[in-house]
Design brief:
Blueprint (H helix, E strand, L loop, with lengths): L1 H7 L4 E3 L7 H10 L4 E3 L13 H8 L3 H4 L2 H15 L8 H33 L1
Parallel strand pairs: 1-2
Length: 126
């Protein structure tokens, strides 16, 4: 997924869940895809601190304040799934991609509609 996204967008930083804590994920992002910074929480797995590589760098200087912003993305995913469902109905890969784009568009239209309603309500009150 990261490879596909990196073909379309130049990333400076990647924030990932602790489930992606593996040296090969850091290397893929940094060395192969040219992403300058990876922020993935270290999962020590009972083995103690990492001894080398990008995982050691993460262990020594984890950017808590940046990683803390992931809640915004998680919140958007959760809201999208809650309102539009968590399963795709399309069967082919192309149809699934189209369905995902339609869901994103629908989600954005819902946000615009809510913001329009709140502006109209505010104008009525004032």
């Amino acid at each position: 997924m990261v490879r596909q996204a990196a073909r379309r967008v130049k990333f400076r930083r990647l924030l990932a869940d602790g489930a992606y804590d593996a040296e090969h994920h850091h290397r893929l992002c940094r060395d192969e895809l040219g992403i300058a910074e990876t922020i993935i929480p270290i999962n020590l797995r009972g083995r103690g601190a990492p001894h080398d590589g990008y995982r050691l760098q993460m262990h020594q200087a984890f950017a808590k304040e940046l990683y803390g912003q992931r809640w915004q993305v998680e919140s958007a995913f959760s809201r999208n799934k809650r309102l539009l469902g968590s399963a795709l109905r399309a069967r082919s890969v192309q149809a699934q991609a189209d369905e995902c784009l339609i869901r994103v568009l629908t989600h954005n239209l819902m946000i615009l509609r809510l913001s329009h309603r709140s502006i109209a309500t505010e104008q009525t009150v004032n």
